[in-house]
Amino acid sequence: MAEQITVRTTPELESARTLAEGRRMHAISSAVRYALLAGVGFLMLYPLVWLIGASFKTNTEIFANPGFIPSEPTLNGYIQGWKTSTPYTFATFFWNTFLIILPKTIGTAISCAAVAYGFARFEFPGKRILFATLIATLLLPNVVTRIPQYLLFRDLGWLDTFLPLWVPSAFAGDAFFVFMLIQFLRAIPRDMEEAARVDGANTLQTLIYIVVPMLAPALISVCLFQFMWTMNDFLGPLIYLSSVDKYPVSLALKLSIDTTEAFQWNRILAMSVLALVPALTVFFLAQKYFIEGISTGGVKG
Amino acid sequence: MGGDSRYLGLAYVAPYVAGLLIFTAIPFVASFYLSFTDYNLMRSPQWSGLDNYTQLFTRDRTFRKSLSVTLLYVFMTVPLKLVFALFIAYILNYRLKFINFFRTAYYVPSILGGSIAVAVLWRYIFADSGLVNMAITAFGGEPVNWFGDPSNALFTITLLRLWQFGSAMVIFLAALQSIDKTLYEAAAIDGAGKWHTFVYITLPLITPVIFFNLIMQMVQAFQEFNGPYVITEGGPLKSTYLLPLYIYEEAFKKFDMGYASAIAWVLFAIIMVLTLIAFWSSRHWVYYAGDKRS
């Protein structure tokens, strides 16, 4: 009897022991994981947090205090930085950025939706070749087309205007977005569209009243990405814009680095904070669209 | 759809076709032509045969320097970024709490991406008495001359791009989350350890996204401009003078369009060859579910 009992209990005890050990191991490894993730998260975010703090610091404190909280908070950087050393304030530069972003985003949304609809829902001669060019453009480095594009816009008399910065996008020039929308459309069943066609709607009406509402989440992603990329675009304005009164924020920031007197660091940092605010706000308001957008565009491709 | 003209679809893709011809295809061909000419905007392009290319490869020391810096930058940045992004995605893929919080935190630097404001920030935190050196001295280390020393400057740009590993990570994470859990359970029953499970199950299943990220990050890294232009202005001693900076200066400062086009084509050829190698080799290492070949 006694022997039977021991025989029966030992494995249970052992399994209880391994279970406890397993749990402890699990607790340790997840503690390590959290520590690592928190450490990396700190490295990711602290530079930005520091930037915000530093923009309220005095110039002497910026390179003396690694902390976030300014010892003598001042708005001087913002007030002086906003004025700039040019005849214009940052209000002009933000307005210019807006004047580029608005037509570019709208043009992108409309043209990419139509083109994606064409690729995803129709058969036509040359479709396969055209689709192949779409993938090729996705991989084509801009560096190789930039010079002739510049010459083209020069001949059109578009230099020093906003046109070169947004017109190509209004021709569905950003293959990435077209591709993303095609992927999205392929995953949507055609029943609704076919029902609309049976009811006598033509393809354009179907696109506007049926497809676009279903595409809405993907179109929002497209607009958000385009907003961010345009906000950050630097090389385009650098090449095409020459008068300071047309500068967008990105170019104005570079200008203020070059022209602000030495030791006026907080002005530049303050304006950098302001330059990041629109992108950060939009991101936090709509982050699910970003994450979804990048996952669809990337993984299903 | 039935009854529609077979050309109807073309009407919808017409804007794309027009844009493709005007803004991509014709400029693409034109730039190839220009690379064989001498063209400074003052008079029409003069055919000069292979002169630009011979100049580049035999006499231009700036080009040689710039090319080697570019290759060094790409081969340093892309692997580091991919390994780091995959590592973090792998850790995040455990059923941890706050996964969304971490994912967002890691993604923020990527969203700010090529922003000039971020490049400005980098100038400040890696300055001689900037945040990074303050932290190093606080831990008893010697401050590092990040931008003054040619052997460090390029690495500082790499660090900026590593800091933006978030978009590659989000793609990896989505792929990891889509892996069938029963495969892991089967591996665990067979007694496979974590490392074996990772190498023999996880890695093969995510090779398509590794491939995608590799190509994307490589094409992007070869075209890096904002970082070196704003942070180091190509210096010191041209140690961060990447080819896109050289092209920019030749084309838009000196207006030597022919020569700049030739440099652009060399850069393009390098990207093409590496992309083709990646595509060609992919049949040996990229696994597509349901594909009999693998």
TrEMBL record, chain A:
Keywords: Cell membrane, Membrane, Transmembrane, Transmembrane helix, Transport. The chain crosses the membrane at residues 31-53, 93-117, 129-153, 165-185, 206-229, 268-286. The keyword Transmembrane helix applies. Pfam families: BPD_transp_1. SUPFAM superfamilies: MetI-like. InterPro entries: MetI-like, MetI-like_sf. This is Carbohydrate ABC transporter permease. Residues 94-286 form the ABC transmembrane type-1 domain. Belongs to the binding-protein-dependent transport system permease family. It is found in: Cell membrane. Its main location: membrane. The keyword Cell membrane applies. It comes from Chelativorans salis. It is a multi-pass membrane protein.
UniProtKB/TrEMBL annotation, chain B:
Keywords: Cell membrane, Membrane, Transmembrane, Transmembrane helix, Transport. Gene3D superfamilies: MetI-like. It is found in: Cell membrane. SUPFAM superfamilies: MalF N-terminal region-like, MetI-like. Residues 67-278 form the ABC transmembrane type-1 domain. It holds the Pfam family BPD_transp_1. Its main location: membrane. It is a multi-pass membrane protein. The chain crosses the membrane at residues 12-34, 71-92, 104-125, 153-176, 197-219, 259-280. Coiled coil: none annotated. CDD domains: TM_PBP2. InterPro entries: ABC_transporter_permease, MetI-like, MetI-like_sf. Belongs to the binding-protein-dependent transport system permease family. PANTHER family: ABC TRANSPORTER PERMEASE PROTEIN (PTHR30193), ABC TRANSPORTER PERMEASE PROTEIN YESP-RELATED (PTHR30193:SF1). This is Sugar ABC transporter permease. It comes from Chelativorans salis. The lineage of its organism: Bacteria, Pseudomonadati, Pseudomonadota, Alphaproteobacteria, Hyphomicrobiales.
